[in-house]
Amino acid sequence: MYQAFGDKLIAVTERYAEEIAKEWCKAVRTNPRTPSYHSMSQDECYPIALDFYANHLRPLYFSKKPYTEVQDYFERFAENSYKAGHPVHEAAYALMMMRRHIWFYADFQAYFTSSLEQYQAVESINRTINFFDHGTYYFIKKCAELIQK
Prior knowledge:
Elements: H1 2-15, H2 17-28, H3 42-62, H4 66-84, H5 88-108, H6 115-148
Helix pairs in contact: 1-3, 1-6, 2-3, 2-5, 3-4, 4-6, 5-6
């Protein structure tokens, strides 16, 4: 079930990764919950989301053993956020926004209109939320380690 819808969702996200990344960057640079991102230039912000949508989403989504890959990606996100000076709560919210933008774009463009596609969409979103939840755990754990050093 994941494969059919997931392929479509991932294909849409990869195809429009640049647009989705720009929308995420615009959102994170203006959201009141992410003020440390407000001073970032488009050139600093955009590659963060583009790299995720274009290079990491597919392997995380379809991995047979996603936990190692999830841990690696989210720990790197934590390290990069820490180096950039983003408070943990703001970087965590930026991750939440990154997850939401996967669906916002597809939903706004009405790519999934039939009843079956909508059911599969729910399944796919649940899978995405699941790996983001695990990733958020690793993100917070890594942030705690970095702060303690």
